[in-house]
Amino acid sequence: MNVKIGLECHAQLLTKSKLFCPCSTDYHSAEPNTHVCATCLGLPGALPAVNRRALRYGIKIALALGCTVQPETIFYRKNYYYPDLPRGFQITQYDFPIAFRGLVRIESDGGDGGKEREIRITRVHMEEDPGRLVYKGTIDTATYALVDYNRSGMPLVEIVTEPDLKSPKEARTFLNKLRSILEYLDVFDGDLEGAMRVDANISIEGGERAEVKNISSFKGVEKALYFEITRQRNLLRRGLTVQQETRHYDEVRGITLSMRTKEFEHDYRYFPEPDLVPIRIEKYIEEVRREIPELPDEKKLRFIKRYSITREHANSLTFDIHTADFYEDVASKIDPKLSATWIADVLKGELNYRSISMREAAEQISADDFVAILTYLKEGAIAERGATEIIREMLDHGGKPEEILTKKGLAIIGSEAIETAIATVITENEAAVQDYHAGKKEALNFLVGQVMKLTRGTADPKEVRTMLEEKMEQ
Ligand code: ZN
Ligand code: MN
Question: What is the distance between the alpha carbons of residues 327 and 341, in angstroms, rounded to a whole number?
Fold first, then answer.
């Protein structure tokens, strides 16, 4: 099926103050309507002044996405009425955004090899966020809504893609990649609530497109798009056409609902914001370019080359900057391949299971702790199971590797201790021993299992098997 998806991604920038006023952006745990002033409440006579840092962050993002930054940029008024927009217009950009034409590479198959796709970026522009409406219940059943202007005037960068995405899953992969890049740039924190909000356009079989507005999670984007594919396909099947319209995604019910139809760009009566002058941004470009760090794609290639690790591991390790830094720290002290396996496969798995980020985990488990665990493993002091056990214990209850190793008795035991365990198992499992001598060879597996249980997995199973066989033949 021919599916075309384009995204408009609004990312909240990590500046200290809002886009056009000095109000603090640190409102996430604040009471409603406490981070407001005349400007962001749209009171008469209040004038906007552009936050230069926000503008530089916007340029930084545009450069990192390979866009062409424009020499001059102009803010516009986008006119519409909604209770979250007290002025009756949003200050945004239109004909002269900060940048055009960029590119984001994604691994469309999940990252295990080679299937890279290029998603074109149409433009990058700056705009202010409106306030936040809080509904009692859902948008179509609530009897009233509350409005919080703390978010009004928050600095956003809007990143618009061409309709290059071919599936809901690919849209999600793209968003993850975008988040990764923005976090590398240190201008965005995806963990903050509502940090990225997405409008998703989707059309199928060359029909009209529907736009699903203001989706606040990546999972939500994927689900809303799957819902739209089914809805639009059903319309076509019944011989109807898809209308161009704006829809709302109901996160609770997992469906999209029509909000308004027949609305076009010219309806917004865009015109240049008369309270702000055009801004020459050309002079910032080279300076900002020098602030751009190594980005995920470059880091991935360097990891593959420098540490001889697989593409899949490199992908997984460079996905977020904290994991990448952690890996490099560990890999500089011990076998880089072993480090890659244990961080990408084991540690990340344990973190996912507990829904904690690498940044949070770093407080429980330092790179040096990790090196210590891998050293035990490499020297044969603990088994793989023991290493995993230490990682789990550290994440759940804290502590240091050496303490946990002793406390939980995870050290691999020697032949003498195995012999003692074998003797005990043989005495306690007469029936199985007789079965074995009667030719039932599977009884040996049972006995090996009993020894492993008795030694709490600290014995080498191969050694146990050999020793047990010898003992039985005596
Ligand atoms: Zn303000
Ligand atoms: Mn927008």
Answer: 10
3-state helix, strand, coil in the chain (%, to 5): 40, 20, 35
Q: What domains lie within the chain, and their CATH numbers? A: 3-288 (no CATH), 296-407 (no CATH), 415-473 (1.10.10.410)
The pLDDT assigned to 114 comes to 56
CA-angle at 174, arms to 172 and 178, nearest 5°: 115
Q: Which residues surround ligand 1, an ion (CB under 5 A)?
A: 21, 23, 37, 39-40
DSSP-derived letter for residue 41 is T
Cα of 91 from ligand 2 centre, angstroms: 10
Measured at the CA of 109, the angle between CA 106 and CA 111, to 5 degrees, comes to 70
Q: Where are the alpha helices (DSSP H) in 32-105?
A: 52-64
Banded model confidence at residue 150, pLDDT cuts 50, 70, 90: very high
Note the ligand closest to the C-alpha atom of 37: 1
Q: What is the pLDDT of residues 66-76, one digit of tens each?
A: 999 999 999 99
| Ligand of minimum distance to the alpha carbon of 21 | 1
For residue 204, give the nearest of 175, 225, 173, 174 by alpha carbon. 225
Secondary structure of 283-299 in the HEC alphabet?
A: HHHHHHHCCCCCCHHHH
Ion ligand 2 residues within 5 Å by Cβ = 158
Task: Give the pLDDT mean for 442-462.
Answer: 86
- Checking if the pLDDT of 457 tops 90, the result is no
List residues bridging with 235 in a β-sheet.
none
- DSSP per-residue codes, 359-404: HHHTTTS-HHHHHHHHHHHHTTSB-HHHHHHHHHHHHHH---HHHH
- Whether residue 56 contacts residue 70, with contact meaning beta carbons closer than 8 Å, is answered with no
The ligand whose atoms approach the alpha carbon of 157 most closely is 2
Helix (H) or strand (E) holding 431: helix 430-437
Backbone phi and psi for residue 49, each to the nearest 5 degrees, phi listed first: -135, 130
Q: Residue 193 C-alpha to ligand 1 middle, in angstroms? A: 20
How many Å lie between the centroid of ligand 1 and the Cα of residue 144? Answer: 25
Instruction: Please tell me the distance between residue 126's alpha carbon and the centre of ligand 2 in angstroms.
Output: 9
CB 229 within 8 A of CB 242: no
Q: Which ligand is nearest to the CA of 41?
A: 1
d(CA 1, CA 314) in angstroms, rounded, equals 33
pLDDT (tens digit, 9 = 90+) per residue, 89-144? Answer: 999 999 999 999 999 999 876 544 557 899 999 999 999 999 999 888 777 788 89
Tell me how far apart the terminal alpha carbons of the chain are, to the nearest angstrom: 69
- The chain-wide mean pLDDT, for the chain, equals 92
